[in-house]
Specification:
- This protein has 103 residues and is an all-alpha fold.
- The chain has one domain: Chorismate Mutase Domain, subunit A (Up-down Bundle).
- Helix content is 74%, strand content 0%.
- It is elongated.
Amino acid sequence: MTDTILMPDECTTMSEVRAGVDATDQELVALLERRFGFMRAAARIKPSRETVRDEARKAAVIQAAGEAAEARSMPRDRIEAIWELLVENSIAYEFEIWDATRN
């Protein structure tokens, strides 16, 4: 096994594929840490609990992710499904933080 992470098209063994997936997952978690930090900031900034959920913003974020996926020849429907879960969980987290900091 090598310490170098290969790009998907360079992989020739399942060990290489798994190493790449594991490394990518760690990068995704780091990005989600930053995204959830923005949810904490939003909870701090928004003036009322009613402003936490913004359906127009949610739709725009999911659409943008779908468009970005399509531009990269990725399956738009699957990326939008992932983003639906991501945004809903982000909203739930923001509600938790909003409530925790106001009580």
